[in-house]
Amino acid sequence: MPHFTLTYGPGGPLIDAFVGISEPKFKALTSAKQPIPPPVIVKALVDTGASHSAVDPTILKGLQLTPRRIAKTITPSTGATPHKCYTYDVSIHVPMGTATSLFSKMAWEVSGLDLKHQGFDMLLGRDILTSGILVYDGKARTFALAF
Amino acid sequence: MDDLEKDEAFFQAELPKLKAEAGKYGLVFEQKLVGTFATYQEALIKGYEIAGTKPFLVEQISDHPQVQQFTRTVGFEECLTLP
After folding, report:
1. How many domains does chain A have?
2. pLDDT tens-place values along chain A, 147 residues long
3. B57 vs A69: CB contact, 8 Å cut-off?
4. Separation of alpha carbons A11 and A45, rounded Å
5. Contact yes or no for B71 and A49 at CB 8 A
6. A122's torsion region: left (phi>0), alpha (psi -120 to 50) or beta?
7. Which residue, A3, A25, A113, B47, is most buried by CB atoms nearer than 10 A?
8. Would you tell me the crossing angle of helices A23-31 and B40-51 to the nearest 10 degrees?
9. Beta carbons of A26 and A93 less than 8 angstroms apart
């Protein structure tokens, strides 16, 4: 099972990930002979408090993505009435060294939420963590992820 | 109301008829249900095939209202205003 262990700092458990257009969109753009936006490396916070994964809109705009649906979203600031938020289809790749990856999702739904001001571009939520193992060692200030 | 909002409203109106297909993903294009698919990826493939770069909607069929929850405060600049 691919896994890695990293130390975490004041910002919490952060990892590098690549976010790009989804594989179906890649094929559609290739067929239409349109330019393919390259994947973007992002700083992702592993967040068990996020039911779904989310990406900052500046990243999504750079990939020239269009919304795929409208999701109801609750945060501490919304109270009980959900806000409506766009979702997008993307690919997500978490590298492990140069030749292997921790995991790859070729078509995954993420919400577009403003995150950058908090020091990261992406929330890696429970929709992805549900298929892996997360160990958070507070005493050693490390976390391990396995998929 | 833009095209995606129209497709979303159409999908929500169709949901009661789709209960038997809970768990699958519905594909809506120009306010018509194109079909239901076992996975998100399969629905996207068909969506891009028929719609190209035009807007289309893919959403999971569920008996229960699906609400995303974030315990962290996030910005909603990219989101719609209140329902």
Report:
1. 1
2. 888 899 999 999 999 999 999 999 999 999 999 999 999 999 999 999 999 999 999 999 999 999 999 999 999 988 889 999 999 999 999 988 777 888 899 999 999 999 999 999 999 999 999 999 999 999 999 999 999
3. yes
4. 8
5. yes
6. beta
7. A113
8. 20
9. no
Least CB–CB distance from B8: residue in A24, A70, A77: A70
Q: How far apart are CA A37 and CA A91, in angstroms?
A: 12
A29: nearest Cα among A66, A69, A70: A66
Residue A17: its pLDDT value, please?
96
For B42, the 3-state DSSP assignment is helix
What is the domain-level CATH number for residue A52? Answer: 2.40.70.10
- What is the residue range of A120's domain? 3-7+16-146
Across the interface, do A69 and B55 touch by the CB < 8 Å criterion?
no
Taking the whole predicted model, whether its pTM rises above 0.90 is answered as yes
Q: Single out the residue of A46, A40, A37, A115 nearest to residue A75, CA to CA.
A: A115
Write the pLDDT tens digit of every residue in B27-39. Answer: 999 999 999 999 9
Residue A61 has φ and ψ, to the nearest 5°, of -65, -40
Give CA–CA dist A7/A143, Å, rounded: 6
